Amino acid sequence: MKQQIIISGLGGQGVLFVTRLLAQAGLEMGLDVLTSETHGMAMRGGTVLAHVKVGGFKSPLIRKGSADMGLYLVRSNIPIHGDFVKKDGYRVVNTDQSGEYLFVDATNQARGMGSLLLTNLILLGYAVANKALFCDAEIMRKAIVKVSNSKNRELNLSGFEKGLALKG
After folding, report:
1. How far apart are CA 60 and CA 142, in angstroms?
2. C-alpha–C-alpha distance, residues 103 and 29, integer Å
3. Helix or strand or coil: residue 1?
4. pTM (global) more than 0.70
5. What is the DSSP string of 39-103?
6. Per-residue pLDDT tens for 75-101?
């Protein structure tokens, strides 16, 4: 199993947390994992891009046009990072607007659950439910349990489950 994934969002959206979850899921499956993040102005709401490579890769960076999957925590980053995903790759986008991608309004769903912090987990669950990622729901649940702190573990799992239930 090999997959190249980019995660694109804005500072404060949990891009790095999703990166950690994907890396842990790969490790749970006994796969080699490489990650790299570009923080930039992340602390001030700037664009953040993370690269995750699962399988036998030598370099952590993903070339434009090579990613198998793009997870966009904000639709406005598609023009910025959209060219990383290959033509037949998956794009999973947090938006209420349809397009040439899988989409779910994860922000509105998170708001309904009482915590905008769940946006990234809802989007991740939606991606897993739509088989856009290398792992299944059980592996991701294990990763969430391992990576989440004890205070947020159950909340994080509930956000992920919400995303799974919204399969498109």
Report:
1. 24
2. 27
3. coil
4. yes
5. -TTGGGT-EEEEEEEESS-S-S---TT-EEEEEESSGGGHHHHGGGEEEEEEEEEESSS-BSBEE
6. 999 999 999 999 999 999 999 999 999
